[in-house]
């Protein structure tokens, strides 16, 4: 049985073929503007409401939700049909609310330092399962008087290895949930054909590339996909993306103690980033069981950022503070970036809770 957010409009019309013609628009609006389950659409006749609720079950089942930062960070753990699990993180910042979504259960890319990579690949998420994560976040945002404004594909999985479903989800997020293309960010480890395809799409979304190393010797070690698409090929695709879409690129750089955080690393990175006008996000590495190396100490992270700046590259530092929220969730929250905003009537951030500060 398809879930409510799996259906396109034609399929919904088919399901409502015995109803007056306006019903399809009404239900569609209920799903995407009302952010409601069919069972909550009180403007429908009760019998139809019950029928749709049964015909269009939720695609995601909530296993848990955990809060941090006095309610401004929220992490969901979902179970999918078939039993796989994924996470979604919602973060309210002063000026925006961002959701970090998963595109796959697990990931096949095998980056050594990444908890998702260490767990291996379970399955692709469908377009509806991706959209439904955003709908859950939009609904929760509305409940606390905020508007969901940004979506980042920085949760579990490699979005460009699940291209068609991610692309269908992006179209839906833009067309039906009304999110602007520049506020949709796809993060990739460097799937070059995917970057080229994305450049050719009508929707110019923002692209983030997880670089982490600026020479092939080190990147081959950290990111196995680099052996297939080395840095020169990756940068060429990045250049094309920028030319075609006119969007600013960003490079993600997990700062790993003693591995990619020297002055020479900063210089190499600056030489690649400056000609592309790319922004760099520095994320001190979160240690994971399969890669128990520490993140770089704050002084080194600050020095690295300053060195990039003197070479004409803007960089933002994103801090996590591990704590009561579970580690994987803290990691996803770090990727979403920014400073948590206190919500009206909420407690202020507790110490020891995963927390971020941009530009610190
Ligand atoms: N697969 C995509 C998107 C999901 S990962 C990608 O790799 O870009 C999102 C970001 O989290 C990537 O930049 C990734 O390198 C980073 N990341 C993964 N594990 C991390 C860790 N242990 N500490 C800090 N950042 C990590
Ligand atoms: Fe997959 Fe991204 Fe993790 Fe690499 S960093 S294993 S591509 S989720």
Ordered list of secondary-structure elements with their pairings:
Elements: H1 9-15, H2 22-32, H3 46-55, E1 61-68, E2 73-79, E3 85-92, E4 97-100, E5 104-106, H4 115-119, E6 121-124, H5 127-143, E7 150-153, H6 163-175, E8 184-188, H7 192-200, E9 206-210, H8 216-222, H9 231-245, E10 250-255, H10 263-276, E11 279-284, H11 298-310, E12 315-317, H12 327-336
Parallel strand pairs: 4-7, 7-8, 8-9, 9-10, 10-11, 11-12
Antiparallel strand pairs: 1-2, 2-3, 3-4, 5-6
The structure holds S-adenosyl-L-homocysteine and iron/sulfur cluster (SF4).
Iron/sulfur cluster binds near residues 107, 117 and 189.
Protein traits:
360 residues; alpha/beta; TIM Barrel; ten-stranded mixed beta sheet; two-stranded antiparallel ribbon
Structure notes:
The protein has helices spanning 9-15, 22-32, 46-55, 115-119, 127-143, 163-175, 192-200, 216-222, 231-245, 263-276, 298-310, 327-336; strands at 61-68, 73-79, 85-92, 97-100, 104-106, 121-124, 150-153, 184-188, 206-210, 250-255, 279-284, 315-317. The chain has 360 residues and is α/β, with parallel strands linked by helices. Helix content is 36%, strand content 18%. The protein has two domains: 9-55, no CATH class; 61-325, TIM Barrel (Alpha-Beta Barrel). Helix 5 (127-143) runs parallel beside helix 6 and helix 10 (263-276) crosses helix 11 (298-310). The termini are far apart. The strands form two sheets. The chain has a ten-stranded mixed sheet with strand order 1-2-3-4-7-8-9-10-11-12, sandwiched between helices. Strands 5-6 form a two-stranded antiparallel sheet. The chain is elongated. Helix 10 links the parallel strand 10 (250-255) and strand 11 (279-284). The longest helix has 17 residues, at 127-143. The protein contains twelve helices and twelve strands.
């Amino acid at each position: 049985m398809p879930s409510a957010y799996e259906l396109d409009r034609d399929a919904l019309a088919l399901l409502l073929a015995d109803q007056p013609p306006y019903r399809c628009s009404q239900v569609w609006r209920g799903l995407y503007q009302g952010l409601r389950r069919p069972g909550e659409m009180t403007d429908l006749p009760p019998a139809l409401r019950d029928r749709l609720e049964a015909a269009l079950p939720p695609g995601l089942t909530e296993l848990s939700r955990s809060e941090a930062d006095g309610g401004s960070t929220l992490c969901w753990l979902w179970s999918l049909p078939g039993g796989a699990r994924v996470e979604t993180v919602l973060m309210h910042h002063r000026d925006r609310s961002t959701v970090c979504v998963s595109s796959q259960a697990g990931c096949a890319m095998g980056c050594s330092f990444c908890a998702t990579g260490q767990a291996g690949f379970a399955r692709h998420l469908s377009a509806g399962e991706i959209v439904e994560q955003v709908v859950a976040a939009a609904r929760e945002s509305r409940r606390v008087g905020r508007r969901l404004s940004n979506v980042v594909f920085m949760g579990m999985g490699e979005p460009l290895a699940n291209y068609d479903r991610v692309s269908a989800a992006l179209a839906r997020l833009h067309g039906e949930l009304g999110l602007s293309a520049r506020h949709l960010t796809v993060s990739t480890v460097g799937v070059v054909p995917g970057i080229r395809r994305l450049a050719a799409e009508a929707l110019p979304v923002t692209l983030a590339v997880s670089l982490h190393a600026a020479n092939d010797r080190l990147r081959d070690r950290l990111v196995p996909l680099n052996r297939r698409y080395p840095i020169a090929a990756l940068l060429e695709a990045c250049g094309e993306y920028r030319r075609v879409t006119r969007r600013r690129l960003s490079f993600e750089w997990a700062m790993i103690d003693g591995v990619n955080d020297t002055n020479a690393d900063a210089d190499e990175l600056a030489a690649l980033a400056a000609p592309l006008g790319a922004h760099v996000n520095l994320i001190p590495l979160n240690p994971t069981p399969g890669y128990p190396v520490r993140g770089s100490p704050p002084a080194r992270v600050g020095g690295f950022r300053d060195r990039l700046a003197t070479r004409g590259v803007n960089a933002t530092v994103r801090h996590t503070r591990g704590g009561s929220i579970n580690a994987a969730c803290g990691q996803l929250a770090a990727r979403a970036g920014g400073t948590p905003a206190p919500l009206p009537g909420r407690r202020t951030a507790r110490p020891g809770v995963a927390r971020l500060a941009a530009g610190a």
